[in-house]
Amino acid sequence: MPVPRVCVALPSVRHTVLLLTACVLLTCAESPPKFLRTPSDQTGVQGGVASFICQASGDPRPKIVWNKKGKRVSNQRFEVIEFDDGSGSVLRIQPLRTPRDEAIYECVASNSVGETSATTRLTVLRGTSAVKTH
Q: Which of 92, 88, 115, 95 is nearest to 105 (CA)?
């Protein structure tokens, strides 16, 4: 919610114009993050790839971070690709490993006004074993 601003006009015309200009410049509409796109639950196969998309708007522009089990993702198999316009990112996991990668993942969008999060579940199936012939 925007912070209410109060403008006071001084007797001098010059001061009044400067103050009114300053008040107009200060009344920017800051807003907390709001999701435009949230990640969807996925089922992948061991050795495969999973990609989750998260996008948010807000003013100032929210920063997006990804967590796994409450901790920021950090591993060579976890790649975070940011959108060119900075409005979101993709979490890419490759190669998928079971049961290590099976978890709840969280996209957190935050700015100076607020924070919001969305969770998603990744299920990883074991690869198929060789078929026996008779």
A: 92
Q: List the pLDDT tens digit at each of the 134 positions of the chain.
A: 455 454 555 555 555 445 445 545 555 689 999 999 999 999 999 999 999 999 999 999 999 999 999 999 988 889 999 999 989 999 999 999 999 999 999 999 999 999 999 999 999 999 764 334 44
Tracing tokens 């015309």 back to the chain, one arrives at: 13
**Amino acid identity for residue 23 in this structure:** C
- Going across the sheet that includes 42-45, the strands are 42-45, 115-125, 103-110, 63-68, 71-72
CATH level 3 topology of 31-125: Immunoglobulin-like (2.60.40)
Q: Is the pTM of the predicted complex or chain greater than 0.85?
A: no
